[in-house]
Write a structure and sequence with these properties.
Layout: H1 2-13, H2 18-49, H3 54-89, H4 97-113, H5 119-141, H6 153-181, H7 188-199, H8 205-215
């Protein structure tokens, strides 16, 4: 037993295996993070908005958690493997800015881009897209010295002051318009949430009349 333990420790501490162990650690961390994020979310959404027997609900929760954990683990493995390959084949022997883009492109296509995607994958990609959009918006108003576009100071300050109010207002305006007139285009979990908040709170006219008569 001690021999096996010493062998494992020697492999872990050996620099020549560091890159390969980093791949495994990335996959492990991706799986752990995916499960940690998805399980409580699925638990709340399923018990709040889904009907059916307990076993069916638990099955849905575990399936969503497994899908989220597995896909983040696979993406992390593909991304880090791609980065390692690009670094070792780079003419300069150094990481280039394009490496992260190409590695992300490869992982994104293999894990999230091919075939019919589950609702879990769609939610992950939509979340990433929203974060990327905000980051790019910030980059637009940053100075060139900070890696941004470098627009004029006056225009940059004006955009920084007004961009979020416009963005927030238009986002809510569009989602409410879509939900009212084109509800089938909205993601199912969002539609369920909005139905619970805005349709489930509507009081029928007959009930209103009843309360009005009783009050009088």
């Amino acid at each position: 037993m001690d021999v096996v333990k010493n062998t494992v420790n020697s492999i872990i501490l050996d620099p020549q295996y560091a890159d390969y162990l980093a791949l495994l650690k990335g996959a492990r961390n991706g799986a752990f993070y995916g499960a940690k994020v998805r399980f409580p979310h699925a638990l709340v959404m399923v018990f709040l908005f889904r009907s059916g027997p307990l076993r069916e609900k638990l099955s849905i929760i575990l399936k969503a958690t497994r899908t989220h954990a597995r896909n983040l683990a696979i993406f992390a493995l593909i991304y880090k493997s791609s980065m390692l390959f690009l670094l070792r084949t780079s003419p300069t022997g150094k990481e280039l800015k394009s490496h992260t883009f190409l590695a992300g492109l490869t992982g994104g296509y293999i894990v999230f881009g091919r075939g019919i995607q589950s609702s879990v994958n769609q939610q992950i990609v939509i979340y990433i897209f929203a974060r990327v959009s905000l980051a790019l918006a910030k980059l637009m108003i940053q100075r060139r010295s900070q890696g941004g576009v470098g627009m004029g100071r006056e225009l940059s300050e004006k955009m920084e002051r007004n961009a979020w109010p416009v963005f927030a207002s238009l986002s809510w305006a569009m989602v409410m318009w879509l939900y009212r007139w084109h509800p089938d285009t909205i993601q199912p979990s969002l539609k369920s949430s909005m139905k619970y908040m805005y349709v489930g709170t509507s009081i029928p006219k007959a009930l209103l009349l009843h309360y009005w008569v009783v009050f009088l």
